[in-house]
Amino acid sequence: MNQKPLNIAIVAGGDSGEHEISLQSAYNILHNLDSAQYIAHVVEISQQGWEVHDSDGSVYPINRNDFSWQPNGEAKHFDVVINSIHGTPGENGILPAYFELIGIPYTGCRSFIGALTFSKYYCNQYLKQCGINVSPSMLIKKGQPININNIIKTIGLPCFIKPNSGGSSCGTSRVIHSDEIMPALERALSEDREAIVEKLLAGTEVTCGLFKTAEARDVFPITEIVSKKEFFDYEAKYTPGLSDEITPARISAEVARSVKDQSLLIYDLLDCRGVVRMDYILVDKTPWFLEVNTIPGMSPHSIVPKQASIVGLSLNELFGILIRDAMQE
């Protein structure tokens, strides 16, 4: 007997500078899901409204009381949600908390973990207490007095200044000289109410995608990132030719194993769920943790889909595993 296809909502968009990137991820997921198994729709979420995009081009508003929609006047409900919003409100725990309240299964980390990991500073301070190598950093809040001399004394130069909560390197600056600190802070604080000042680590940048469920576990091949700009900023990430993403990374098997083992440890320490991507700088072959992406990009050009394809895992297979895991929760 044929099983009825599941109704899937792929939520995308959001309220950050990653809105368009999120939509690219969502439509790539949509085009890779097996239509015999899933009836999937992209649900675009923004401050202007929540809307279902139907396959015929029609757009319908979402009833936020129960996340239903009404094509032809008949209410339809989703069986499970794929969360593909990079940034707020999907990646910082707000939208997951909503789905928890109304009882709809969803992929990705739970609301509390999303809130913790979305704050680079507080997440890294927690992991530091657990023995993970993280770069020295300090937190600057919007409106508080800024002491440039104290920043230089505490963190030193060069350093990175970036929004504490955000992704895709939006508002991030590489600071070499002291007179660059204030403009960099203004740039970061225009994106977020908090900025993080972080010591620059010189080394090789690598990233590791992985997931764990009751059904399966996989740590993907590690990718080495070589930016042709000062660092792997928004332009380098999304402009063809401005960075090289080399998979597998040009590192020894021993170093690759240490990155994978540390990623599995951090996954458990943070109680992650679903597929995530963890970024590191290798300093003298030792991995220093930068941040965790709990909703990594899934566009055709994104790192995790490429890593998964190398081990023979299609997006349809990957999200099949994640959907089943979400529904079992």
CATH superfamily of the largest domain: ATP-grasp fold, B domain
CATH topology of the largest domain: D-amino Acid Aminotransferase, Chain A, domain 1
- Share of residues in strands: 25-35%
Structural class: alpha+beta
Using the coordinates above, name the CATH class of the largest domain. Answer: Alpha Beta
Layout of secondary structure:
Layout: E1 6-13, H1 19-32, E2 38-46, E3 49-53, E4 59-61, E5 80-83, H2 94-102, H3 111-118, H4 120-129, E6 137-141, H5 148-154, E7 159-163, E8 173-175, H6 181-189, E9 194-199, E10 204-212, E11 217-219, E12 223-227, H7 234-238, E13 243-246, H8 253-269, E14 274-283, E15 286-293, H9 303-310, H10 315-328
Parallel strand pairs: 1-2, 1-5
Antiparallel strand pairs: 2-3, 3-4, 6-9, 7-8, 7-9, 10-11, 10-12, 10-14, 12-13, 14-15
Question: What do these coordinates show?
Answer:
This protein is of the alpha+beta class. The protein has three domains: 6-108, 3-Layer(aba) Sandwich (Rossmann fold), CATH 3.40.50; 115-133 and 202-310, 2-Layer Sandwich (D-amino Acid Aminotransferase, Chain A, domain 1); 137-199, 2-Layer Sandwich (Dna Ligase, domain 1), CATH 3.30.1490. The chain has helices spanning 19-32, 94-102, 111-118, 120-129, 148-154, 181-189, 234-238, 253-269, 303-310, 315-328; strands at 6-13, 38-46, 49-53, 59-61, 80-83, 137-141, 159-163, 173-175, 194-199, 204-212, 217-219, 223-227, 243-246, 274-283, 286-293. Strands 10, 11, 12, 13, 14 and 15 form a six-stranded antiparallel beta sheet that branches. The protein is globular and about 65 Å long.
